[in-house]
Design a protein that fits this description.
2 copies of one chain form a homodimer. Chain A has 366 residues and is of the alpha/beta class. Chain A is 26% helix and 21% strand. Chain A folds into 2 domains: 21-35 and 70-170, Sandwich (Jelly Rolls); 181-357, 3-Layer(aba) Sandwich (Rossmann fold). Chain A contains 10 helices and 15 strands. In chain A, the strands form 3 sheets. In chain A, strands 2, 3, 5, 6, 8 and 10 form a 6-stranded antiparallel β-sheet that branches. In chain A, strands 12-11-13-14-15 form a 5-stranded parallel β-sheet, with helices on both faces.
Chain lengths: 366, 366
């Protein structure tokens, strides 16, 4: 039912139409997979969470962790073709994210967006899909850096990456820091409602600062449970960004977990920078005074300030309303979640702060 | 199937749950409807095109014209409640626009986004839907300017607007110019793929310059046919913006209509400013050299330059790649259509040019 949008599309091709393609499995030594810290122990499954904790984590958190938001496949190649074979477990179907935003695998070449593979309405387990990103049969070979951003809100299997038979490979550009920035939070953190996987705020920020990142945003379930905190603390991070609050039912339930969450990180990482972010604006709170949101902001400020006052010199506070405040509500799609404009603003704000905090040079992507 | 996005939503309420509501029909003398030039002769139906031409226009153009993209309902009120009753003919279902973008009716209060009513998966003719934008039972009355942006990609009937029984009404702020700017074009013009009706480039631009506008973008069908040109020329406009090209199959088919289109406008409007826009970038053309797109740009430049050279002092050219060029591909969702970031950039570019062309002061909405 996409009868209206008739301007031509970059369509997925039926299987086997492209000749001269060599298929590479994923994982493969020729490609780097970033943003999925437990990839090895998960035996290459593109989950965000460790399989070993499947039964220990809240069920919803585990389920959301099967979507590889923040996962990226990177390599350099002079291939004149690039194809991908994907398997999605189901069709797209969210009311505030379309198929490109929910299921898309974005291709960036040398840091520039070039195309997206998406799940179709027919998608289900056992029905693989093939997408041709490019096919330059007769052109001179050029080495390009490939980044494939994995889906924000849908599990996926990458059955293969297709290149031409003569393609060479080399390692992608190293990140500015050897360890990733780890983001823990809500649906906003997970990437709702970016229009593409390359447009979550972390993806934009990653390009701005040449930064690796891990996305641990769990839609509706960024509640800060102790078992989740212990899991986040497993990661060898350059920085932790805590962008959760709104999924807690009350300020009281947030208060029960917020300081313990920071404590769990500090136990394993006494010196790693932590950036604690208060909720961004929503579209109704200036009219109706959202005392829950305001109370959560107050609580986060108090916890963070107390710990800083007690001597934590690597903890900082960021006001969400500086990222997306009451004067920037065009950056929201449904009154709650950022759209691409909102995520761009959030990335700009994070880039300025994290650039200083981590000693990085910022290069705007505009 | 929106199981993942659990952060709370502003839900449509079931019928009759809100007490003390007075329902107002649309049209009504208390509200202004903008952006639908043939509203009166269409007896209040929210179509973009004149019913009288239904059989003369290309069938697809007429069908797309039933979606009221660019239509706005405006009034000032001190009501403490605001509700809307809508009827959509079908459920949302596009792959590059979600329900908010395709079907949403956005509420802006005093120029600021506050919420959206959308079609549900159950939507069909005869199944009305009620949405509460706000309900401040006990708060002091405040007069606010209401703007409701009608859907970009779905027909809709507004069955009623609900206010409290004591609500007063006054006329909305007049626009900076008494006549609208008329945009003719493709799906990009129609609003694909904004995440909300308030985020088409014309909607953003309208807020930036306090400008009325008419959206005559026809997805896949912005082909510049002579009968469409004659229809566009019926409108008493402050300016015409021609943003079409890509829906023509070839440069040759574009050439057959482009100069005649301008001619049809000039016949009725010898002095009204016309801004001719060349295609914006797409994500593949820098890699693959899109000779069709480049040829179209060249053709438009030639036609416009010839007419300017021949003495048309109210015709201007705008390069689409200055609005959204090869360095801004994060402003695209599917390689072709702008997302909210792209539309913000386009609006900024149009605001700068149209502000000068029409002698208006620009107020950025950022």
């Amino acid at each position: 039912m996409h009868r209206y949008l008739g301007l031509f599309f970059l369509l997925a091709t039926a299987f086997g139409q492209t000749s001269g393609v060599t298929w590479m499995a994923v994982p493969d030594t020729r490609v780097e997979i970033d943003g999925l810290p437990w990839l090895s122990e998960n035996r290459g499954e593109l989950f965000r969470l460790p399989l070993r904790l499947k039964d220990n984590l809240p069920k919803a958190v585990w389920s959301l962790g099967e979507s590889p938001s923040g996962g990226r496949i990177r390599f350099r190649t002079d291939s004149n073709k690039l194809l991908i074979r994907l398997e999605y477990p189901r069709a797209p179907g969210m009311r505030n994210m379309h198929a490109f935003g929910q299921t898309g695998v974005d291709l960036y070449l040398d840091g520039v967006y070039r195309g997206t593979a998406i799940a179709t309405p027919e998608a289900k387990t056992g029905v693989p899909l093939e997408h041709t990103y490019f096919d330059f049969e007769d052109r001179p070979r050029v080495e390009r850096e490939v980044t494939l951003y994995l889906p924000l809100y849908m599990p996926v299997k990458v059955l293969g990456i297709g290149v031409d038979g003569k393609a060479g490979f080399s390692v992608p550009r190293p990140f500015a820091l050897p360890k990733p920035v780890v983001f823990y939070g809500t649906s906003i953190t997970q990437g709702g409602c970016a229009s593409r996987s390359g447009l979550s705020y972390q993806a934009i920020l990653g390009r701005m600062l040449n930064l690796d990142f891990v996305n641990l945003g769990f839609s509706g379930n960024g509640k800060g449970e102790p078992e989740v905190a212990r899991m986040v603390a497993e990661i060898d991070a350059s920085c932790f960004v805590l962008d959760f609050a709104q999924n807690n039912g009350t300020v009281k339930s947030l208060a029960a977990v917020y300081e313990p969450f920071i404590g769990a990180l500090r136990e394993k990482h006494p010196q790693v920078p932590i950036l604690a972010v208060t909720p961004i604006s929503n579209a109704r709170e200036a009219l109706t005074r959202d005392s829950r949101n305001e109370g959560m902001r107050r609580h986060i400020r108090q916890v963070v300030s107390r710990r800083i006052a007690q001597g934590d010199t690597n903890l900082q506070l960021m006001e969400g309303t500086d990222l997306l405040g009451p004067d920037r509500l065009d950056g929201l799609v449904d009154g709650i979640h950022p759209n691409d404009l909102g995520f761009q603003w959030m990335a700009e704000g994070f880039a300025a702060r994290l650039g200083k905090l981590l000693g990085l040079a910022s290069a705007s992507n505009r």
